[in-house]
Amino acid sequence: MNLGYLYTFVALASFGILGILNKVAEVKKCRPSAVIASLCLWSAAMVCAYLRYFKHSGLSAPRNVVVVATIFGITGAIASIAFLAGLKYGKISTSWLIINLSSAVPAVASILLYGESVTLRKGAGLGVSAGALFLLYKDKQAEESEKVTGATGAPRSSPSSGSSKDKLLWLQLMFVAFLTNGLGSFGLKILAEKHLSGQYQFQYLLFWYLTSSLIAAFVFLTKHSKPMKSEILMGAGMGLSSVLGQLGMVMAMSSHVPGYLVFPLAIGGNLFIVVAGGLILFKERLRTYGFAGLGLGVVALVILAIP
Prior knowledge:
Shape: globular
Radius of gyration: 19 Å
Oligomer: single chain
Helix content: over 70%
Strand content: under 5%
Structural class: mainly alpha
């Protein structure tokens, strides 16, 4: 048996656990900036250990790699904080799909900045992504409407404006997370264009995580004094899941599993885990729009993930 498929499963499961831990952190009322600072610091330490003891390579990298990692590490921190904050107002099942669909952002950026041709596959992926996002918006709209009128459609005696505020906050935070998370992953595209991604991929991740940790820590310390133990431990678990997911994908492809299998399986599979967790563990409810949006989203992710 090719061990590459085992590595693919590790990536799939790790990213799925990462999504569920995001919701657990929100349920436990962990502060987003504290969790993200912890997550990125633990992740940086794990990448550092991997480079030193498994790859036997140095931690230094060319200036271009450090600069790009720093810039996009900032956007990554913003995305992670906004996403975790947004979970207070929305479901993990649909929110996780939105953050995964942000892969459309670097696809568009590549077209605009590098003049990449808009192939039929890429155009279809972007179009289906837009359709999925629209259906998820309609699902959220239907959810908020039910909060006001009740599940039967009968108006409640004292409807509150809180539900509309929650919907607006969720939309705003998910938009910020969608855009900045997509930009955060664009750094690897820049390195690939400079022929640096293969040699310095993990050094890039190290500086990316360190920058994100510093930004999140700065945001946290402007309002708070020190993190809680639960936030540090939650960040450690999320950091381990993040790094294992990254390593699983890299090792799967180095074991000659084709990218057109690794990416769709890892991304689509982890989404299934998170959706199942949302429905079973957190008793979330999806409507017709939500299920349709998830279905379209999986199709879009598969299309966009195929190299």
